[in-house]
Amino acid sequence: xxxxxxxxxxxxxxxxxxxxxxxxxxxxxxxxxxxxxxxxxxxxxxxxxxxxxxxxxxxxxxxxxxxxxxxxxxxxxxxxxxxxxxxxxxxxxxxxxxxxxxxxxxxxxxxxxxxxxxxxxxxxxxxxxxxxxxxxxxxxxxxxxxxxxxxxxxxxxxxxxxxxxxxxxxxxxxxxxxxxxxxxxxxxxxxxxxxxxxxxxxxxxxxxxxxxxxxxxxxxxxxxxxxxxxxxxxxxxxxxxxxxxxxxxxxxxxxxxxxxxxxxxxxxxxxxxxxxxxxxxxxxxxxxxxxxxxxxxxxxxxxxxxxxxxxxxxxxxxxxxxxxxxxxxxxxxxxxxxxxxxxxxxxxxxxxxxxxxxxxxxxxxxxxxxxxxxxxxxxxxxxxxxxxxxxxxxxxxxxxxxxxxxxxxxxxxxxxxxxxxxxxxxxxxxxxxx
Amino acid sequence: xxxxxxxxxxxxxxxxxxxxxxxxxxxxxxxxxxxxxxxxxxxxxxxxxxxxxxxxxxxxxxxxxxxxxxxxxxxxxxxxxxxxxxxxxxxxxxxxxxxxxxxxxxxxxxxxxxxxxxxxxxxxxxxxxxxxxxxxxxxxxxxxxxxxxxxxxxxxxxxxxxxxxxxxxxxxxxxxxxxxxxxxxxxxxxxxxxxxxxxxxxxxxxxxxxxxxxxxxxxxxxxxxxxxxxxxxxxxxxxxxxxxxxxxxxxxxxxxxxxxxxxxxxxxxxxxxxxxxxxxxxxxxxxxxxxxxxxxxxxxxxxxxxxxxxxxxxxxxxxxxxxxxxxxxxxxxxxxxxxxxxxxxxxxxxxxxxxxxxxxxxxxxxxxxxxxxxxxxxxxxxxxxxxxxxxxxxxxxxxxxxxxxxxxxxxxxxxxxxxxxxxxxxxxxxxxxx
Lengths: 434, 434
What we know:
EC number (chains A, B): 1.6.5.9
Strand content of chain A: 15-25%
Helix content of chain A: 25-40%
Pfam families (chains A, B): NDH2_C, Pyr_redox_2
Largest sheet of chain A: 5 strands, parallel
InterPro entries (chains A, B): FAD/NAD-bd_sf (IPR036188), FAD/NAD-binding_dom (IPR023753), NDH-2 (IPR045024), NDH2-like_C (IPR054585)
Distance between the termini of chain A: 66 Å
Keywords (chains A, B): FAD, Flavoprotein, Membrane, NAD, Oxidoreductase, Transit peptide, Transmembrane, Transmembrane helix
Number of strands of chain A: 25
Number of helices of chain A: 11
Strand order of the largest sheet of chain A: 5-2-1-9-21
Oligomer: homodimer
Protein name (chains A, B): NADH:ubiquinone reductase (non-electrogenic)
């Protein structure tokens, strides 16, 4: 990888997400050689991806070049690399671009969509964990409507206008809200010769409430907001399969649809080379102690979604979202510095700053540790928090500008099929004589 | 295509570029049924594509949804369609999504990159006529530098940092300028462990001056600006081939490079079904009379790049750029309306509003009919004109915001490899022991 050897110990970080970046920032110029590896050359802001998928934002404005984050750091190296495996015996990282020795290794590979082993669903469902995936969803939504215009088969048209979102977590809820806004404000104008009222947005939740990581109150409010927007919310229903045409469930309920977006589960983006014992079977996350040390390894740490730290408050590990990742990254930086100074590491303690979700225009639910609220004010809080969490002034400004414009104009101008998702099935040539 | 029959005559427009859109706008609510067909669901602003390719702008901010343009028009239908052929005998358009009868047909398919039959160059060169192509160039530029970091083979590294632009027209010149700005302000910070001084930007022009459609003075100034920026300008040299590694020319000059961007020629994006006699062999454009009627057809018109109208001032047709396209579109609209009202059509007369090109920061050349100038003021004029030619307030605002930011910060934050262009050749595993 052409990383020069130097006298400082080498810390290798795998992953430039929330965890990896916040760690990297805190390790800046600290008598360490830091190597950051990522599959992409950008950090992306996952919480706003659903707006890219629904044409509200450009992908570029929620992504930020990693090299720009680390530009000024000394003894810091970024490499665009796809890491396959860790050789824990020889303390080596094995990637597509070569191997690299490490003194300390930090796994911050995050999580990926979990289809719980159902290959057919994995093949036929859309996932939304990466920017290209969000762009594929954007293209598919629009392609569906373009296609719906062309068919005279009522069933086919209906299934093209029928959207099924599996999973009632924040992503599914926010996506459903955004789709409902498109249905209300944009699609009827864009497709006057389609009856957009026939468009259906189904949100399917296996549990008995949506946003089940939030307060009961938030769940109820969010569900009400969605129903007001015309979203069909289905609870206590588990999707069993999707063959590309029909969604089957564990009830007698089924859906004919051309589009299933799967947000019903994630699992750790695990690397090869770890002991069975150090990974948690169900979620495929790495078990870590209170110092984020991976069970069974002294020099390997894991932070963020990939790590599961069992605590009293969180017996199954911290929630797989931005806050724990950021806090673990910052905390680990301090611990690594303690370590190389032969000081005692400090245990990680998660400060829950609360969580929130937005449902279309003017509506959101916010759970703060001491204070829970919803509605317009919550929506402003949501916008404020997300805007200021974006890296970089330009992204903040562009996103803000887009939001103001979209709000005033009830519009989303990024409804562009720049990279078509599906090969258009050429419709059998019918000439329009009548 | 599910277009209802109606009592008004049907005008079918193929292509939503400058020509097609300006025609469509003028045919709004005019007792005509208008059907607009395009391969893409967006209109894109070609003059700024080079900034997408060099990470200065998001693709979405130079593209605009066609459906939004025509939203309010009556008896107006847009279809996402790839037209293959015209059945001139039965007055039918034949597309991937079906057939459609027309009363009047307007070909506004624009132009595509012309490799003059050299298949190997077509395979190995990058073109920049579409947004996906610009994004591919963006990805490739960045991928080259990421790869240059990894190799110890000096020749390979050099060829990865060596850029060859073929064609000294506005596109080639503006792209060269933008690359030179990246070399100066961004790449040294992003790639501190590469010697960016070794990056070469070669602009090859077959003629004896660049920007040969502009004034001698503009050519000289532009060349000086480029040389000041460190661009190598090669004149009177014709590229003969590129095998993916080495560019050969009609002189003993050759270039070892991983990247050749071809802007050296365009040809009409011709459709099947036309008489030989009605197409101009060399440029593959449709010969039209002064009413933009395609030679040999009364009800078929062609406007913009695809049309070549031989006049005294322009014996080989008008320049293939935005202005003639826009003016022909507007003029044809008036003529079609005259036609259906049994009035005489008026001949088209091109009003040359001048042309301009920008070369990096603060520098541009502007030729107005009565007044030619260059430098900082020209650069402001260039920005002003391009900003206000963009469709849509939001795009204007976002582009302006980006420009201000990029200018103040000497930056381009859209340097993101969102869709990798090349499969990374996995480098033979070398461990870094030393």
